[in-house]
Amino acid sequence: MLSGINSPEDLKKIPEDKLPDLATEIRKKIIDVVGKNGGHLASNLGVVELTIALHRVFTSPNDAFVFDVSHQCYTHKLLTGRYKDFESLRTFNGISGFTKKAESKHDFFDNGHSSTSISQALGLLSAWQLQGRNDKVVAIIGDGALTGGMAFEALSHAGQIAKNLIVVLNDNQMSISKNTGSLSKYLSRLTMTGTYQRFRKNIDKIVEKIPNLSKFIFRIKRGLKGVFFTNNLFTDLGFEYVGPLNGHDIKELEDVLNRVKNLSRPVVVHVLTKKGKGYSPAENDPAKFHGIGPFLISDGNVEKYDTLSFTESFSRTLIKLAEKNDRIVAITAAMAKGTGLDAFARKFPSRFYDVGIAEEHAVSFASGLAAGKLIPIVAIYSTFIQRSIDQIIHDISVQNFPIVFCLDRAGPVPNDGETHQGIFDIALLKPIPNLSILSPVSGDDLKVCLEWAINSNKAVSIRYPKTSCPSEIPIFASEIQEGRGILIKSEEYAPSLAIPLENSSKRILFVCTGGIFSEVVQASRALLMENIYSDVYTLRFIKPIDEEYFYSVVSNYSGVCFVEDGVKVGGISEYLSNVLAEKKYTNTIIKAFPNSYFPQGTRTQICEYCKMSSKDICNAAKSLLE
Fold first, then answer.
1. Is the model's pLDDT at 572 over the cut of 80?
2. 359 an active-site residue?
3. pLDDT tier at 182 (50, 70, 90 boundaries)?
4. What sections of 377-460 are H helices per DSSP?
5. Quick one: pLDDT band at residue 186, thresholds 50, 70, 90?
6. Which residue, 75, 69, 30, is CA-closest to 49?
7. Is residue 101 annotated as part of the catalytic site, yes or no?
8. Which among 82, 90, 275, 543 is annotated as catalytic?
9. 583 belongs to the catalytic site
10. Which of 240, 359, 360, 519 is catalytic?
11. Which helix (H) or strand (E) holds 46?
């Protein structure tokens, strides 16, 4: 059946009794493709029936679906003409793992970050209504995304202006409390009837004309909500509340949605789903299968690699340091496993805080912990720290609180595409006073940097990539000298190719951030094979910089090739190039990521696409000798 669906209109022609078979087929397709390509599995398996029901009741793209984060949009893609391309999911030149405007008229936003859908949906609906359109806009948001403050801001606004927005709350019971009770279900069904809506509207008109009665009626309504809708925030914000509903019962979902779409008030449809539905490994461990690389479909096992990742190195180091210092506490914004803090949480549960998808709160919360004389370690992906710039300035920098930010996924990030690249953190954080920025090159270097940051009594950001750590050499574990990097001679990383400095007139120095060291070493080895001398200076400190020391290192070389796993504009390479220019040293070139967005692919493919491969770096360095 699935291969014959080229649009939602084809879906609507399928008999109701065949829909469970279609759901099974969709799940199999998603499991097969994610097993090969990696992706977000558990969340997608949980919303298959819900997505089918939405597309059968509403008419996309005349009606709009806005998926929060949108990593749960795989069924939506399969039902909107992308079945033939689905095998290319999350691959270079393939379809995105998120909604993407350029990909389909059924995708209204490029979404990859959390808690934005209600704001976007309300704005789109308001625009359509100003243009005289009466089409529907549906925001689909998970209970995890609802922990983000922006979602509550949007709910408050929607309730105030009484737009007939439809918010589908996909509750997999991992963040929001369970069933609100049978009486609540009965009252929810009552609120969907046209008779009730007309009755309520007429009563409201009468109440508005009798001011004294209005206050009395308001108190009565509030009291009834307190009795019948225990802890129901949505009704207090001005929404009709429907649910909770069985998110895997297509008939029930269709019946409810058909009635909901005729309401003239904002409404929340509360749907209960099971993450990983239909695939037992994902059902049993939804956190593991939230975002996962390729795996063996028969048992869900992921191939193990012997190499150590930066995330694992951070995790192990933090635990060892925390064993010695009970003032260390750790904070994550719903990414305990992704940042490596899950091991810390098991070891020190009372010193671990998961604040939900609320990066702004995480930073301000950390400032309070620091004010209480603790040492907060805030582990957040580079792409998500963008949400917290004001808090870093106002709550950390201005007050000079000692907090350590550990930014995972800095630099190019494979497979997730435009919204997840960690290329902006240097340019965003470098101008902020009272904040040091470190860029370790290896696992050993990360250990040294983290220990220094914790003992520094300063605000420090440590950035590292989503890659395996390079092979260690002793100098990576050398003692930190603030503001200085590590000069790595060619005989240390390429002893068989090394050229004595005194025997070479062609002397190149690579100056790089730690996250792109591997590509730089490959470029340097290529130069050595052409008898061009090259060493590597890694910027252990992006800020502060001991400029006099840096110049003393650079002055021994005939040219400097800066390589940075961040954007060029506002980056450290641009800054240091200007420092050298002021000293009349001008034979420099910068290789950094363009100020643009680039699609999903492997790290190698992304670097090639952005002209940041080892070959591109090598060619840039050779141009200094022309």
1. yes
2. yes
3. very low
4. 382-385, 389-391, 425-429, 443-455
5. very low
6. 75
7. no
8. 275
9. no
10. 359
11. helix 42-46
